[in-house]
Amino acid sequence: MKKKRSEKKRHVVAWVNKAEWDQVLEYLYSQDSSLQRFALQRISAWKGRYSSSTPVAVDCTADLVRCQVLDKSGQLAGVDLVLLYGAALVRFVNLITERQQGRIARPLRRLAGNLNIPEWVVDLRHDFTHRKLPTLKWCRKGCKVVLEWLQQEYWSRQLGGGPNEDWESQSDGEDEEIDLKWKDDALIAKQKEMEAYKNARELLISFEKEQYQALDGLPGGREKSSWPAPFAEMSWLLGEIKQFSVELSDLLVDVLLEDGFLVPTFDQLETLGCETPDIASSRLPQTFLRFWLPLLKMLNSPSFIHLLLEKLFIELKLLSKEQNNHRAFYISAWISEIILCNSNKFSEYHFETKSQKKARIKGRIFVNRIQLRWQQLLSACLEAPCISTPHLLQVILDDMEHPLPLETRQKLLQLCSIYTQTTHSECDPSPEQKQQPIYTLESLHEKLQRSRRHTQSSLAESERGKSSQEYNCSDVQAEKAKLLRGSPWQVCVDKVLWKNYPLGKVPGQSDDPSCLMVDNYSTMTVFDQPVESAAPHSVPGVSAATRTADGLLWNHSDVSKLKSGLQLF
């Protein structure tokens, strides 16, 4: 062991002997630019011998000395010198601290502090890479300080032997210890997370068991939607879940959104007696809502509601890439239920009695209004397109603290309905929409329905108590003709089964394409076309202008353009 310790570690170097080394070191730190150039030429020769294994300190020293030589020559402007100094200083900080970095990234200030590099040098490097370029004065000062550091930490230590860059490898043992500690900490954290996940599932499953027992204990005459008050054991269980949510609310929400909890299975729906919900309604079955109300009321807090909404929209965004209508319905239904609980529209409940108000409040997750993050909710809703997006968007727009302009809301809803391929009908269309021309059958039907609703409402106002009579066929045809007045379309009054005719074909039309040709026609060249000159003023008693052949409608260049633009089908 003693023999091995006494042996010196040998290195292959690029310089001829120690004399050359001493000469290059002396010339590098000389004030004479010619001597510094000679030293840089020798280092270039060393790099050719070293290939890619040139010592980092030698490379950085050469870069910085080259900056000083060019600075003294006066060949470069101030900005060019700043950029040159900046590249050399950035390379120095990055290369010197690179070996200090382990698997876990650590701040450069901390690594530089371990190597006794001034902190302001690291700040200078940050200014070059992320901020405004520093002045030339600071660049020169940084170059001088870094060269002094390299002379002290590298060049002076090599005078007693071969290159021994202890400062590059002094933290290897420290890095290994940090990596091992990080692995141990990650393993412990993973185990704690698995235990917490298991505890959360056990608590929620216990809650479901208690609710099912309460459901079995209901008398036959009572509805399942009217759940009994929690028992003593249930109250203790809710307290445990509350305590768990205080410590790990994020994990609890993740477990709640799994299948079998807030997203029920078909067996659970059958046990609760819930019918298959209508996907277009976006409303939860009341029995299923009552099942989870005790837990959600106990967890009710602004922070929990914000977190739950955020997780629901994230889950809905993930489901937009998958075809899982059952899960997507319940995720969107819970979003709708939470936002509707927060609704500020109380006008419809103005005349309700105290018992009615108590019953309504009893079925809500929370009563007091919460300041929701409306812009974040709106963005999350638009980023998760699905069949329920128009409904959720309408709910959010109606309940916002500072609502968007009416025109913006209508356009947003219309774009959403187009993107999700769902129908969206505005109860009170804008005047611009009413005056739009009819281009498609859908716009015709929509305008016809609005006209019918308007007529029915006027009949109801004039003849209250009387049932409005349905339109007969002639009235409908007359109304359609009235709506199409001024349009190139017209209503066909003949009884024709149009489904038997493809587009572009009319009854009685022959299959022979020659039937579309006219019997008699004449040809006329472009240059033979007469010019119609219109009089600017119409004077009484003077006949109107007639066609003359004073000029041509098109010239040769126009005819060439027309010919080049023709397309044959």
3D structure, described in words:
The longest helix has 45 residues, at 172-216. The protein is built from 23 helices and no strands. Helix content is 58%, strand content 0%. The radius of gyration is 42 Å and the shape is flat. It has 569 residues and is an all-alpha fold.
In short:
With 569 residues, this protein is mainly alpha-helical. Helix content is 58%, strand content 0%.
What secondary-structure arrangement, pairings included, does this model have?
Layout lengths: L1 H5 L11 H11 L4 H18 L5 H18 L4 H21 L9 H7 L4 H12 L5 H20 L10 H4 L2 H45 L15 H25 L9 H7 L13 H13 L3 H18 L5 H17 L12 H9 L11 H9 L6 H11 L6 H15 L10 H4 L6 H22 L10 H11 L72 H9 L5
Helix pairs in contact: 2-3, 3-4, 4-5, 4-8, 5-7, 5-8, 10-11, 11-14, 14-15, 15-18, 17-18, 18-19
